[in-house]
User: Fold this.
Amino acid sequence: MGRFLKSLAVLAAVALLPFRAEAQTRDVSGKVTQAVTGQPIADVTVGIVGQQVGTRTNEKGEYRLRVPMGEVLVLARQLGFKRQTIRVGPAEKTADFVLERDVLQLEGVTVTGAATVTDRRVAATSISTVSAEELNKVPARSVESNLAGKVAGARMFENSGAPGGGAQIQIRGATSVLGQGDPLYVVDGIIISNASISSGASSVTRASGSTGSSQDQVVNRLADLNPNDIESIEVLKSAAASAIYGSRATNGVVVITTKRGKQGKATWNVTQRVGSQSMLKNLSSRSFADYASVKDWTGGPIGDAAAKAACNPKCPFYDWQQQLYGRTSPSFETLLSAAGGVNNTRFFASLNDRQESGIMINTGARRTGGRINLDQSIGTKLTISAGVDVTHNFFQRGVGGNDNSGTSPIYTFGYSPAIIDLQAIDPLTNRPVSMPFNGGGNGTSNPFDVLNNLVNKEDVWRQAGNVRANYTLVSTAHNSVQLSYLAGIDRFQQEGYQYSPNYLQYESADNFLGTANQVNASSFQMNQGVNAVWTWTPGNKLLTSATTSVGASYENQTLNTYSLRGRGLLPTVQVPVGATDLAVTNGKNEFRDQSYYVNEQLLGLNEKLAINAGFRADRSSANGDRAKFYVFPKVSGSYRFVKPFTDKIDDIKFRVAVGQSGNRPRYGDRDILYANGGLIGGQSSLVSNGTLGNTGIKPETMNETEFGTDITLFGSRLNLELTRYQRRISNLLLTFPLPPSSGLGTQIINGGQLSVQGNEMTISAVPFRKGSFEWSSRLIYNANVQRTDNIPVPSFAAGSSFGSTYGRNRIAANTRSTLIWGNAPLGLNGAVRDTILFDSNPVHTTTFSNDFTWKKFGLSFLLDWRNGGSVSDMTNNLFDEGGQARDYVAAGAQRYATFAAGDIRPYIQNGTYVKVREITLNYTAPQSWASKIPGASSLRFNLSGRNLFMFSKYWSYDPEFSNFGNSNFTRFIDLAPFPSSRQYFFSLDVGF
Amino acid sequence: MTTTPMRNALTVSRTLGLALTTVAVAACSSDQLQITNPNTPTVAAASADPQALQLQATGLLRQLRNGRGGLINDFGRFGREMFIYTPQEGRNTSAYLQGITGANKLDPAGFAVGVWGGQYGNLRDIFNLKKSVAASGTLTAAQKSAATGFAKTIEGLELLEVISGRDTLGGVVEIKQNASDIAAFVSRDSMYKYILGTLDDGNTALAAGGAAFPFTLHAGFAGFNTPATFAKFNRAIAGKAAAYYATSGGGAAAWQRSLTALSASFMNTAATSRADLDAGPFQPYSGTTGDTGNPFFGSSADLFLHPSTETDAPLKADGTKDNRYLAKVKSKTSRGPPAGVTGIASSLGYTGDASISGSVSIIRNEELLLLRAEGLLGTNDVAGALAIINQIRVNSGGLAPSTLTSASPAAAVLTELLLQKRYSLLLEGARWVDMRRYNLLNTLPLDASNHFVARVMPIPQAECLVRVGKDPSLAGPGC
Assistant:
């Protein structure tokens, strides 16, 4: 530890010394233009090869750069264009650049540390970068959906079709059983929260708990991010790449960079979108011929009477799903952005308002926010950048998912024959009629009544800000030293609220009429760090550059959640005060982490060999030993063959990366605690905590080896990236089951090992290009095998589930951890036993995207194919159990009979699908059209659709869905979800 | 370059350098990472608190209450006293009445595996309380004795609940300091001997416990809140345990032991009024935040009594139903079993579910009298047993005295006694255990061809899994 302090102190001392700029310098100037069109390109970075700094072109494409005397290599680059290097002789004063478009995205840089980057073409790890254009082709609920199918090695699935978000990204398989399973999200250097906090729907659905559970169609907070503000997203997958984030990095790191101002006069952009949505799939339900055929399914005397009245003699059929989920009200999105830069100041500002209508009546989401990013140069050595972002996110997601109160619509539909009009108004109450079926009492409800009168909403205010100071301490021909300081915060306040009026049919079931529930979560995250980067560019063939960086960071995250539920409300009162029964929850948690790192990055042998090595040392308040540093090392290397064998092969790169990253323990795992026993007779009590903490708990550790090759062919017309990885995660956080007769349940331990082995392939190509017509295409293939190698505990069911009756993953030694275990009569003499039945892991996921441009038209589409991966279709089970499945007579009765005999296999169904994720058609109007709008310089029209088609044999709505939201394992339980929807948009985009 | 920017740059570099150093030093100290958990106390911090003993003692009573609510719901369903017809959760019914397919219908990983973890959870806290009392430097010898007697009484009661659910499967009586060490399974006989021994030790300790406990008991123990009066509760539990032991291999000696213990308990043989019959400690419930509501109240929508409760109810002289039936049973909207579960509909509700703050008896005089009647019958005092049966029939049920005489066959008297127990102790966890004790489980009604009557509750799978591959003495017959 002392070593770090000393090195920092030395650096700091160096900073105080008066450095003198090198006396012998000269200026080089020139212009940067685009190939073919000859148009000037603004904001191109121009600098000396190997150095991290440079200057930028103005709006006329002009630049002026100070360089040392003698010959220098000057490089011009910008994202979206292929770089160009020019050798500037000692006497030359100008250098003009002509840049070609980079269709396959072979250029760009990739993050190698808190303050360092390296060129993508020499990167030694598999890189996945998604540009703004690619990301935002078709609008989506949240950025995960924008990313779906665009990153090799990352799988994105939506948890339900409810408006506003709620999706999971899993990078290279599950790396933890109990620990954090989501990637780390970093926006402009600031670690942001992606917490999934229930807004309290369970207070009404009683899915689990009294005031909230993971089964509440929870929105993860990435939904607050405006995808339109994003310039690029880079996904760090391997441990060698993510080790720079130390003990929070086993699940990968998603590095998001927002847009910044460009040199030149301010440009304004206004986009208006209007869209609609419709149910992707209607499950339909059974229709009945007459009273005799329906009488066994009415669920009691009340339903029987209703059936008798409805069927005279033929029973009508009502398409309840279409009525409830057929809402096509318009969705809107307005985007306003401005960017520019004059003198030493650059700015980017945006405002956005997105209103999404849900397909279910009375549902929707609205995100409103703004962002300002500023970059200010002070003198030639200091740059200060700052950004702020404020977002309001509001959700009305209706009711869906698991339910124990008779409120979840799909649940109700599964048990009720669709022979009456549920939208009919009861003249006595002036509300939709009460549900006569499924008992007809307070164990069920009419969804139209519920959705019209139940309030269930979530309100989030989010603020984030960051500031970064870069100081060039030394800048000579062969050396540069950069110091930087970065600090930022991410804060949100999430408010959930439910109000269930006392008159609703199900309200009397718990003996209390009326429920009001308030849930509040406030989260604050802060991180700050200092970095020093020394780049030495000897400029010889052996060593192009050597970049040494050191730094330190401090992170802090706090979360305070509380809820208040009242049951038995005073008349018309909509808050819990005065209620007969009150329940309160409150919990605070806090993490504090410190880290140090050292990193060395070498580029040599004519920029063909790249080596990157370093380590990060972390300690955290979450660990048993808070003073101990855990060290995460990494080393990676790559070698490029430029135009080997033949000119047809542009470039072949081989790369190998080995690294280690960690996943810190959960809050409180280290504490040996008493539990609050609750009150009895007015006295409070202490009892033993069922879970025994562990004072020696430490982070989970992942060791990963990745190797691969990147091949560019035919003058950058075809690019092939192949990657294979092997990751082993040890010191898993596990709960060691104590004998129940010991009086305690479990103890937290470290132990065991998971492994993931996988292959990723990306093929990018420009198959055809002629005149203004261009077709570019990309295929991404992912496959992995996830195993439990060993565990020091008996095998156990992983994740939240409904037990062996509906299937779940089990963590068992020497077994694939994604296998679905459940009941089937496969024991001795046909005895029912809990055994391995299917695999929830897809054989592969493959996406195929194509872009066509012709003159002013552009057309793109993205196909997403998931091959295999079984799903527990509990929605189908509901419809069969209630006798309402559309195919009940033909197949459902048999499915259910098999299930009732203890065989769950009819409901573990193949989750294969092919989805048309995105289609978009663009038209850029001629200048003459644009100029009809005062001040406008460009005009674009766009038609796009998301999830337009799904081809799947899956019985229920969508095999992507998860009743338990984001989870590491058992993410395949589909139960009465909010159905998935198609979304269509028309956009008009005007530039000023 | 002019000198001015140079000087500015110098100033900036100094400022930045200082800032970097400050941040580095502040972020460097590991003191920064020492944060305390604000949500729940650590064991170390709580034990040092002066209120610790009171909080622990209340914890014992709180857990005792949790365990008993679950027991009544489980035993009530096995004993065909009640159903929990949850429309959305068939397993609340099927796990108790249908079981799983195969010869052994008990699902060790299913729903009906209660009356185990909760009871042992309390045993862990009893173990901790006994240990901290013994180590205490502030309690007097009498206070230590009183606290120990209190703990041992609760221990005996918890283990009696366990063995009355598992019977011949036996159970575990030892709590190990290190929770990952596995304690041996012992037989039913050893369980009862341990329970009776522990209750006797507790009684002795209470006798030496002075005038007061070093903590206060909740209002449910009004009248039983000093060591001397708590001992009467201890003897009541001992009387019940010995009676259960008598029909589980203990024989005549155990009947005698039961009768002796009952006479030292709070049993009132002269009871005639409802208040007299109901006397005894009880579990209070409330809707107060942090407290728990009455367990029947919470499940009242789904709680139905078995229809045989109505058809089997004795009739008073005027032809109307037994007073106990009238007091405990109400009619409600009929409901059948949940979809996918076989069974019969019921329109009978339980009046005990009406209030969130309705209390539930732990053991009361009426049960003690009936246990005494069992003891008298078991020791061949048929006349004595009949006298109590009639005392209950008349005073509790409003019925005419039984037509049985001391000359009647013992089996007939037993049948009558069990009928009285059924209605006197409806939903008090007695019927299923009594039917088993007297080998009458086959007389319980089966409502559908695929129903069964469980003899015992299964040992939870988690208990068996930790014993796999261990020394055979650690595995019981239930694993």
Q: What stands out?
A: The first strand of chain A starts at residue 25 and ends at 34. The two ends of chain A are 55 Å apart (CA to CA).
